[in-house]
């Protein structure tokens, strides 16, 4: 089972200040040198942490390009890019370019987004989100596999569009979310899926995994053909303000090793861990837990 971490993008990520590129790069390089498999960034124009005022946030694709050039081994990915923020043809072009910079290490994570301040403030449409998202998946998926795309869509219209130069490989699409319609889209279009955010494995997680298996069956697709990733919230219990609750795991490294083993037994392919705080010490706690696993 692969293990990755999310990187700091806003003040609420636990450092007590707005992170800059040096902070993001340093944690990515630390995770890579520690042997982790992947690093991930969010994609927002404004950060809206629950129960707190809006915050600034770094721009995802600018940071992603820099990460692609600065790292050497880890997968780099978006968890997830909001499909509303960029035209799908432009997004496919951006993904192909970043994948080339990274030497073929990008996972393009996509999501339908959810209405919030950034939609209202910046004028993005928030109607028909799932219908818009399905058109995006069809267009981006087609372009990234080298197809010439013509579509008279309700929201996007392309005429003989292709990526020139074409991508060096088939860049994997990851879709995040749940709900019957979104799961069917995932089963139809994506190579990977993410469900988040979770603490220790519980009935809510098992229900989501089972629902994804049903969606794959409905699309006549084998379960093992989809790379299943789970977003797990893990906090250092010594960090101020941390509580162990249903959505956040805040145990010892030994406890964390145990729940990682529990995820492995569920045939999860990758854990994407959101650490609190997002600093080197938290990565070191995670790596310590990995050494304590029994399976």
Description:
With 295 residues, the chain is an alpha/beta fold. It has one domain (2-291): Alpha-Beta Barrel (TIM Barrel), CATH 3.20.20. 38% of the residues lie in helices and 19% in strands. The strands form two sheets. It has an eight-stranded parallel beta barrel with strand order 1-2-3-5-8-9-10-11, surrounded by seven helices. The chain has a two-stranded antiparallel sheet with strand order 6-7. The radius of gyration is 19 Å and the shape is globular. It starts with a strand and ends with a helix.
Summarize the structure.
The protein has nine helices and eleven strands. Helix 1 links the parallel strand 1 and strand 2. The relative contact order is 0.14.
Helix count from the secondary structure assignment: 9
Q: Assess the beta-strand content as a share of residues.
A: 15-25%
Give the helices and strands as they follow along the chain.
EHEHEEHEHHEEEHEHEHEH
Let me know the largest β-sheet: 8 strands, parallel, barrel
User: How does the overall form come out from the CA principal axes?
Assistant: globular
Q: Give the overall average pLDDT.
A: 94
Q: Provide the number of structural domains.
A: 1
- Tell how many strands the DSSP assignment holds: 11
Q: Based on helices, strands and strand pairing, what is the structural class?
A: alpha/beta
CATH class: Alpha Beta
> Roughly how much helix do the residues carry, as a percent range?
25-40%
List low-confidence stretches: none
N-to-C span = 11 Å
Strand order of the largest sheet: 1-2-3-5-8-9-10-11
Gyration radius (Cα, Å) is 19 Å
């Amino acid at each position: 089972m692969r293990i990755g971490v999310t990187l700091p993008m806003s003040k609420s990520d636990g450092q007590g200040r707005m992170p800059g590129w040096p902070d993001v790069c340093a944690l990515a390089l630390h995770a890579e040198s520690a042997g982790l498999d992947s690093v991930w960034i969010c994609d927002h124009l404004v950060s809206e942490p629950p129960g707190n005022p809006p915050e600034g946030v770094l721009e995802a694709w600018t940071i992603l390009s820099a990460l692609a050039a600065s790292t050497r081994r880890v997968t780099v990915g978006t968890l997830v890019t909001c499909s509303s923020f960029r035209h799908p043809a432009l997004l496919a072009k951006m993904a192909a370019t970043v994948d080339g910079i990274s030497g073929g290490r990008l996972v393009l994570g996509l999501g339908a987004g959810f209405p919030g301040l950034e939609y209202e403030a910046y004028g993005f449409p928030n109607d028909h989100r799932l219908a818009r998202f399905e058109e995006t998946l069809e267009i981006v998926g087609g372009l990234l596999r080298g197809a010439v795309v013509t579509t008279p869509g309700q929201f996007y219209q392309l005429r003989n569009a292709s990526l020139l130069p074409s991508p060096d490989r088939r860049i994997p699409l990851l879709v995040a979310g749940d709900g019957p319609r979104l799961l069917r889209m995932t089963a139809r279009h994506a190579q990977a899926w993410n469900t988040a955010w979770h603490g220790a494995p519980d009935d809510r997680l098992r229900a989501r995994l089972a629902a994804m298996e049903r969606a794959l069956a409905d699309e006549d697709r084998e379960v093992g053909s989809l790379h299943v990733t789970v977003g797990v919230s893990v906090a250092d219990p010594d960090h101020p303000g941390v509580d162990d609750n249903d959505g956040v795991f805040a145990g010892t490294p030994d406890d964390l090793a145990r729940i990682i083993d529990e995820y492995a037994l569920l045939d999860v392919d990758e854990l994407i861990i959101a650490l609190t705080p997002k600093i080197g010490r938290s990565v070191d706690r995670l790596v310590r837990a990995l050494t304590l696993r029994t399976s």
